[in-house]
Amino acid sequence: WGYYRIEGELKKLGFVASLTTVRNVLDRNGILPAPVRYGSIGWKKMMSHYKDQLLACDFFTIETIFLKTVYILIFIELGTRRVHLAGITSHPDGQWVAQQARQLIWKFEETETNFRCLIRDNDSKYTASFDTVFESQGTRIVPTPLQAPNANSYSERWIRTIREEILDHLLVINEAHLRRVLKEFIDFYNSRRPHQGLNQQSPIPRAEPANSGSVERCPILGGIINDYFRTPEITAVHPV
Predict the structure, then answer these.
(1) pTM tops 0.85, yes or no
(2) Is 162 exposed, middle or buried (0-12, 13-18, 19+ CB in 10 A)?
């Protein structure tokens, strides 16, 4: 049932509960309303109202200097915008993709992180085995609608970001080199890069900065981009 139906059924039984109360109770227990669970809710509404419970994934490719195509699989938490590098390979067959899904689930289990839905496109690399890994954890697979290029916009926007800020400015030698580049950028992106959609916080919230101390620059990936931070002032201690 949706929120209005639940409110109506409660009223029929003599209980008074507002839509806000119904929504809060469902959210607190990690339960999506039926239109979301069974796919009849509008796409835009699902993305705006339930993004804290949504995970998305996407592939993108990079050409090395030796003209080898490398495939990268990433996942992004829509609520926090936190990005997870699932894997890098030149042969993304169904078995490999399913294994990356398992490893991500193991990572989430360590932090007791759960998602109600996984948004993915209709790429043939997402096999039934891939879907089963998530469905076995209670995560519903939500394929993007056909001919809807913006349906997976969070993943696609992040891929655009890393291309514009990093990958368009360096030559990738091989998979090992690419893995180091991606890990360093993702660590910076998740923990230190301000995000406009998060009120200039980072996906992993930063501590409030000090109001004093010198501003220092930390080069990221050899200075392709830079991170800035304050160093605390050292108060001189004078002998008595």
Answers:
(1) no
(2) buried
